[in-house]
Amino acid sequence: MKLIVFSLHVLKTGTPFLSKDEFSPVFIAENTREDVIMSENEEFIEFEEEGEEEQDDPSIQSKVPRSKVPSGERLTLFFRSTIGPGEKQEKLTVDPEMSVRELAQTIGEIFALDPQDFHLSISGRTLDSDDVLSNYDLEDGLEVLIIPVSTAG
Amino acid sequence: MTNFTSKTLTKEEKRRFDRQFRLPGWNQEILKQSSVLIAGIGGLGVEIAKNLAMVGVGHLILVDLDTIEYSNLNRQILFIGAPEGASKAKIAAKKLREMNPFIRIDAFDCPLQDVPPRIYNDVDMYIAGLDSIEARSELNRRAVHNKKFLIDAGTAVYNGHAYVVSPFTNACLECDPLTERAQDQLGACTLVGKPRRPAHCILKGQLRFEQKHGRPANILHSNEVQDVVSYANKLLKEHFPQEKSFSVNQVIQIIDNHEPTVITINCVMASLQSQEAVKILHHLHTPMHKNRLGNIQLNYLIYNGLTGKFYEIEKPRNPKCEMCGKDRTPLFRIKVKRKFRLSQLIERFSQDKKYPIDTEFPPMIFRIDSSELGEIFLDQTISEAGIKDCETVLVTGFDDGSQIYLTLKLEG
Lengths: 153, 412
Fold this sequence. Notes:
heterodimer; A: alpha+beta; B: alpha/beta; Rossmann fold; Arc Repressor Mutant, subunit A; 3 domains; 12 helices; 13 strands; 33% helix; 17% strand; globular
């Protein structure tokens, strides 16, 4: 959660410190806490640099490969439905610059499903309809799962 | 180690749980000392709560701000005979106490955010039977911050998913953000214009009925629904001639929007959640790896009730995740006396942990463990600020705009 605060609030530091022994708080970084199963080497105190924010610099963007597939090439993906009355599999060759929404539309037609009723999932990541395919790490021959939008409780 | 000669289990408990004592690797004492928070007591939550109560989990905390509706009774067995409008959490607790008098059950009929932070800290794990993305995100944050297992699940028509989040081990719910299903809604501007999608024809039919009769169509009156259906199909023919005309059920689903659900699918998913919970509780209280009961399913499970097939998806962590990724806001736990002043606490933190204060935008503290978010003024003591034990706050105003989470363990 990134809360950006634009308010000027003057820190009041006029109050003197209380006796150290009595009220000294003890700061415990989270990784000192013993956990039975969960991974224990989580560093909670990190001084990582802020991520680059000057994304409008075109020279930076062009250096970052957006996908393993060179532009202009087409991508063969295998789609498998986990929803609907029968498991179906289809091979489809797509343009990596295609939007996820467009792809879902096409898949909906092929599998006879309403695009609102499924998400596309590749290697454990759910594709965002507002994204284009090339923003994901896609390789030729990958399996794309058609998964339910199961949010009801 | 056998439960038959246990000193912490009563004679009645031994008789009641006799058959499960005989399960290999089972330990009733562990379950008796365990506590689980169940968020959402609906189709899934009722079944989870029932299972964990029956199995003898010693302390259940039920959270749901919803009230009982008659249409819940096709699947939510704990509410049969209860008055409509009663609190789901309270009624469920009452029924479960009758079913298993050996356990403790607490009910909260408030938003998840307003459950005392201490409970999130103290329980062994969380289980979700929620129906919204927002509530899942909130519970996920608590799970990551408190490093607790979270077992999520959800259903959609004849499908369901179940997923155990083990913070910092597999993906948390924020690693692969959930997205809500896009709802068909007519913007004010489209009311007069041409329908842009087939579903808009139904919405226009619904609107026409409402304008004509001053109330929405009653789905139990076939002539009223038929009125909407025929108008919608007339528009459909006009604007989308290639589409198949709408059925009565399709129209009902749009004019009276509720998720279709049935107890059979709910029970499958809730039982998967409950079984993982039983193993996790055994694991948490069994220090020796080799003695642990089974293994936790850390993959995302999908169940298709129409084909009877299960699918398993591995969920790797996302290094860019805002909750558990590399650049997440760091969290610190602090033991501190209630009469300590917040301004001094921040100053001490800044010195101890080398977080220089931003002189331009000096520190501010925000309440996040509450349905009412807001700033907490620094010029007061912790108790004056109404900060609760184990509450997590967000502190902004360190150099380079960095911020931290502080979890305050209160003393004195």
